[in-house]
Write a structure and sequence with these properties.
Blueprint lengths: L1 E4 L4 H4 L4 H5 L1 H27 L6 H4 L1 E4 L8 E5 L4 H6 L1 E4 L6 E4 L16 H4 L5 E6 L2 E7 L7 E8 L1 E4 L5 H24 L5
Antiparallel strand pairs: 1-3, 2-3, 4-9, 5-8, 6-7, 7-8
Length: 197
């Protein structure tokens, strides 16, 4: 998933003389890159407000592609394919001949993550663990103790799970572009012309 950050700079350049216009391609590329970095930071800072993050994997996956003089566009996006569904919403469907396992009472570690050894594939064939089908669906169960009952539901198995849009990527990025591109462009052009620094 990517959002291309580009901008019409005509309204920023109509007042310039020819000397200033020669600096525009470089200044534009740098301003777009700065703006993409601003948007990257906003998206990363917003993630903990929307999700419970167990590690920095998703945050570190928010990347940018800098703009170039001959290609005046910057790209902001996520390396994680599943974040597209988090942005747009939709149904997460199971692979062929399988179902989506929704954790219910699966064992978690201290970081509240489910270890590989407690995931559905690893539990298959373990003692006291079995799959039970009911009229409303299927689940992976575990017997508590030596008797047949009580049972504990570890995972509920579904053919599909509805995912609501929660990422806010496009809204955050668009707002940042609107707020930051103008100041970034003026700053970049001023530096390119030697007014600052």
């Amino acid at each position: 998933m990517r959002l291309r950050v580009s901008h019409d700079v005509e309204r920023y350049t109509t007042w310039m003389d020819d000397a200033a216009r020669r600096h525009v391609p470089f200044a534009l590329a740098r301003a777009l890159t700065w703006t993409a970095k601003d948007a990257q930071g906003v998206v990363q800072d917003d993630l903990p407000k929307r999700y419970t993050l167990r590690n920095n994997w998703v945050k570190n996956g928010i990347r940018i592609v800098p703009a170039k003089k001959d290609e005046p566009q910057a790209v902001v996006g996520s390396l994680e394919p599943f974040m597209k569904r988090q942005e747009e919403g939709g149904t997460k469907t199971a692979r062929e001949h399988s179902r989506v396992a929704v954790p219910v009472n699966a064992r978690r570690n201290k970081r509240n993550m489910i270890p590989k050894g407690q995931r559905p594939a690893a539990l298959k064939g373990k003692p006291k663990v079995f799959m039970m089908k009911t009229a409303s669906g299927a689940g992976i169960m575990r017997r508590i103790g030596k008797k047949r009952y009580p049972l504990q539901l570890l995972y509920w198995l579904k053919r599909g799970v509805q995912v609501k849009p929660a990422f806010g990527f496009q809204a955050n990025t668009s707002t940042t572009v609107r707020d930051r591109f103008g100041p970034n462009f003026v700053d970049s052009l001023s530096r390119a012309m030697g007014h600052w620094g």
